[in-house]
Design a protein that fits this description.
Elements (H helix, E strand, L loop, with lengths): L5 E4 L3 H11 L5 E4 L11 E4 L1 H9 L3 H5 L7 E6 L5 E6 L1 H8 L4 E4 H12 L5 E4 L4 E6 L4 E5 L4 E4 L2 E3 L6 H6 L7 E12 L5 H4 L3 E6 L2 E8 L4 E9 L9 E3 L1 H6 L6 H7 L5 E7 L8 E2 L2 E3 L14 H18 L4 H30 L3 H13 L2 H5 L3 H4 L5 H4 L4
Parallel strand pairs: 1-2, 1-11, 2-7, 4-13, 11-19
Antiparallel strand pairs: 3-6, 4-5, 8-9, 9-10, 12-15, 12-17, 13-14, 14-15, 16-17, 18-19
Helix pairs in contact: 1-5, 1-10, 2-10, 10-11
The structure holds flavin-adenine dinucleotide.
Flavin-adenine dinucleotide (FAD) binds next to α1, β3, β12 and α10.
Length: 399
């Protein structure tokens, strides 16, 4: 793909996975990251077998194994009574069915595992403190510029710069970032002192009108990652900003006492207003292509935004390796292979958001369905999601 490394804007889940997937195929890349240090907010991430299968191929899963939580089920509770409505089996059930496990991790641990695997590759460079502001096409490649005027030259630019992507804004300046009407607050609580049903090896999901709570063990079970999602009319400024414990607790009035007691153990919370923009008309332009949240933000009610970013990395790296000198064709193929799957996940996530927050008779009907239908049968509805093992090109890749 002409001379010079592949330039990747952003060293988040998508950027690190893509750099690594390229390196394993012998393709040099340079990650240009805005942050001065690769720190991560105290929060967790759930990784389905579709993401874990890629992390296994990338040599990341082994590093993650001792740090990750290994939930044996997703337990769904009625938020007000605390009654368990259903149990979706994970553990051995999912590993045997899909050939890869379901893991839950602290984001710092996922990042460390990715960086550990990256360390073995000298042709993958990470430049921190470099905020991409624009680029110039030279005909044979690109010169990417930072806000402080520094420059890097490469063959193509991949925008892996997340929801607030600068690269996307250059390609589609008028595309709206529509607010979803929901706010997420996240924290991590030590397991010691938390009640048994919060500290156990399971993901818990608590449902109530206008709010739900998700928790799962991280850091080899020493901590519990918690996400509280509430309906909120207007978005807050900032991304991952502090939010007070009292403000979070005030949104959970009506939840079962043991959930409230557990939530009161949290010291610090960070908040993210959630966005659900319409699909982009295209994910690429000339020598520039978007991946992960930059291309397709996904509401977190299916815990798959990071998973789709990791899948993107697997597919795009395989396509680049196949046709290194034809960026336009590579990017068109990438979008063809990925768009419908990502859209299906976006739709399913949006639907979950509505179902989780139902009230009145609709909530009663939901709870009844969850109580009656066997969890293992209901899980089969997600075979299309968890059973993914590379887009066509990924399966024949060299990695
Ligand atoms: C509350 C919540 C819970 C979630 N839970 C899950 C879950 O359980 N499982 C799951 O799979 N997904 C989950 N997600 C979604 C997941 O976090 C995202 O989909 C994922 O982080 C996207 O990865 P990314 O690399 O595309 O973007 P990001 O992780 O946002 O990374 C973008 C990177 O680009 C950098 N950057 C930004 N602008 C520039 C610039 N101009 N120049 C250089 N660098 C730049 C940023 O600093 C950052 O490092 C959740 C999201 C939220 C909000």
């Amino acid at each position: 793909m002409t001379s010079g490394p592949v330039l990747i804007a952003g060293a988040g889940v998508a950027g690190l996975s893509l750099g690594l997937a390229l390196a394993r195929r012998g393709i040099a890349s340079r990650l240009l990251e805005r942050r001065a240090e690769l720190s991560q907010a105290g929060a967790g991430i759930q990784l389905g077998p579709n993401a874990m299968v890629v992390l296994q191929r990338l040599g990341v899963a082994a590093h993650l194994e001792s740090l990750a939580g290994k939930p044996d089920a997703i337990d769904v509770y009625d938020g007000a009574s605390g009654r368990r409505l259903t149990r979706f089996p994970l553990g051995q059930h999912i590993e045997q069915r899909f050939g890869a496990p379901y893991r839950v991790a602290h984001r710092t641990d996922l990042q460390s595992a990715l960086l550990e695997a990256i360390r073995a590759h000298t042709d993958l460079e990470i430049i921190t403190g470099f905020e991409v502001s624009g680029w110039q096409d030279t005909g044979a490649g690109l010169i990417v510029t930072a806000t402080d005027g520094r420059k890097h030259e490469g063959s193509i630019l991949i925008g892996a710069d997340g929801l607030w992507s600068t690269v996307r804004r250059h390609i589609h300046p008028d595309h709206p970032l529509t607010y979803s009407g929901k706010l997420a607050a996240r924290t991590v609580i030590p397991s010691a002192g938390a009640g048994e049903r919060f500290a156990r090896a399971a993901t818990g999901v608590w449902l109530a009108p206008d709010a739900h709570v998700v928790h799962y063990p991280v850091r080899a079970g020493r901590d519990i990652a918690v996400v509280v999602i509430v309906d909120e009319v207007t978005p807050r400024e900032g991304w991952g900003r502090d939010i007070s414990s009292t403000s979070v607790q005030a949104r959970l009035i009506g939840f079962a006492p043991d959930l409230l007691e557990f939530i009161s153990l949290a010291q610090d919370w960070h908040a993210w207003s959630l966005y659900d923009p319409p699909p982009l008309p295209s994910w690429s332009s000339d020598r520039v292509c978007l991946v992960g949240d930059a291309a397709h933000p996904i509401l977190p009610f299916f815990a798959q935004g990071g998973g789709m970013a990791i899948e993107d990395a697997d597919t795009l790296a395989a396509l680049i390796a196949q046709s290194p000198d034809a960026p336009a064709g590579v990017f068109a193929n990438f979008e063809n292979l990925r768009r419908s799957r990502v859209q299906r996940v976006q739709d399913a996530s949006r639907d979950n958001g509505k179902t989780f927050h139902l009230s009145g008779p609709m909530a009663i009907a939901r709870n009844l369905t969850l109580t009656i239908a066997p969890g293992s049968l209901m899980m089969r509805r997600y075979d299309w999601l968890y059973g993914w093992n590379g887009d066509a090109v990924g399966r024949v890749s060299k990695a």
